[in-house]
Design a protein that fits this description.
By secondary structure, the protein is mainly α. It has 3 helices and 2 strands; from the N terminus they run ααββα. It has one domain: Non-ribosomal Peptide Synthetase Peptidyl Carrier Protein, Chain A (Orthogonal Bundle). Helices cover 69% and strands 6% of the residues. A two-stranded antiparallel sheet has the order 1-2.
């Protein structure tokens, strides 16, 4: 049991677990904001009444869902900014540097 406790302390497993849990929660929050708020607004601006997620381009029998791709891309960019500014704001990028 002592070896396991030392492993957790040295490898910062608890901090990693907390970061993983918070990352999942932030991801869900950002996805909800994008899906429920930003995508409908972009859909209104572009004249897509059913929302951005349904926007597509039909070429022959193929249907390219560019609205869904745009929504997922916006989701990724917002999460990347939140993580970047969270790391910078908490100065986690300076931790093990001497």
């Amino acid at each position: 049991m002592k070896g396991f406790t030392e492993f957790i302390k040295k490898q910062r497993v608890v901090g990693l677990a907390i970061g993983f849990i918070l990352g999942g929660a932030i991801s869900k929050l950002v996805a909800a904001i994008i899906t429920d708020f930003i995508n409908p607004l972009i859909g209104l601006v572009l004249g897509i009444t059913k929302g951005l997620e349904t926007a597509s381009l039909k070429i022959g029998s193929a249907q390219i869902m560019w609205g869904h791709l745009l929504g997922v891309s916006i989701d990724f960019i917002v999460i990347a900014f939140v993580v970047y500014f969270g790391v910078k704001g908490l100065k986690l990028d300076k931790l093990d540097q001497k």
